[in-house]
Each structure stands twice: as C-alpha cells, then as structure tokens.
Amino acid sequence: MAHVPASERRPQLIQAAIELMSREGVAAGSTRAIAAELGVAQATVHYTFGTKKDLYRAVVEQLTAEFIGQVRAAAPDEGPFGEQIAAMVHALWDSAVGEGGHCALMSEFAALAIRDPDLQEIMRALQHEIESTAAELLTALAEAHGQPLAMSAHEISVVFLAGFNGLTDRYLLLRAAGEEPEQESRRALDLLVATTVGLCLGAPAAT
Predict the structure, then answer these.
(1) Is the pTM of this model over 0.90?
(2) How far apart are the first and last CA of the chain?
C-alpha cells in the first residue's frame, strides 16, 4: 500500500476503530483488529497513536464532536423557547439512537471507565465537555429570548443529561432484547423536555 501521511491516516484509523467497535464492542478494538479493519500494518496504528489510550481518546473525541455538531446544526433560528429546546433534544436523540448512531458504543466506554483509570480520565473530560456545551447552548437560547433562567444553566444541563443518558440506555437495552420501545421512549423524552423547560422557567413540568 502506498505511503499515506499520518495526518491522513489518523482519521481513517479512527473511523475504522469506530466501525469495528460499534459492531463488536470496545474489547474487540485491539490495535491488531483495527489495523486489519483498514488493511494496514499493526505498527501503523502504534505509530499514529502511540498507545491504546490515545486511540480511545481520539475515538471518544470524534464521537463527541459528531454529537455536538449535529445538535448545533439542528438548533432552530426561531420559534418559542420550549419548542427550540425540544428541537435540539430530539436531534440529540436521533443522533444517539438512530440509524448509524453510536450511543451504545459511548455507553460501553462509560461502563468500562468505572474500573479503568485510563478510560476514567477520558470519559470525565467528555462529560465535562458535553455539560459545558449544553450549558452554553441553553444560555445562548435564553439570552436570545430575553428569558432569565430560574437556576444556573450548568445545573439544568446536569439534570437533563442525567435523564437523557438514562433514557437512551433503557431504549438500547430494550431494543437489544427484542422489544419495541420507540413510542414509550418518545413520550418519556417529551416529559424530559417539559421538565427541562420547567427548570429553566421555574415552573412545574407539563404532564
């Protein structure tokens, strides 16, 4: 195979790792398997990333960037405050659990991080980045509407993301077990949106 600069090989290896791990799980993502996925020498993976930790960080950062980019792109330019929040939340949901979504892979990384110090560092940084981005988007939206928030954007974001992660984990588990949780999950997601808007406005959540 012709020589490819590291700057070009890096994104290729990250994508190969994502595709492999999405199919077979994080444990299957050895440097040997990732190299075989792309059809390169194992040494190429080591040369490009140095350690498996560096590779995992690159994969998580890529997945995070994709999630955040899709949510930012889905943010509507106009409409009532609550409807704009709902639009962003549903875009995040579709990105996470829809066709081609990688939420299951991210959940697996998070579960493994409980006992893996290297992954703990990576996933902690990811958590803070997502919370900061959610708070940033919420603050900007509130300011655009001239809507003071009833509590800090960070607090609201932490509560929302905890609920969202729980709903996605439940959805993926039930779907993997052969159930069809789509309608129930969408209803729960709408309730989470209503709760989040209620926290923003200082009003009871709609039921």
Answers:
(1) no
(2) 60
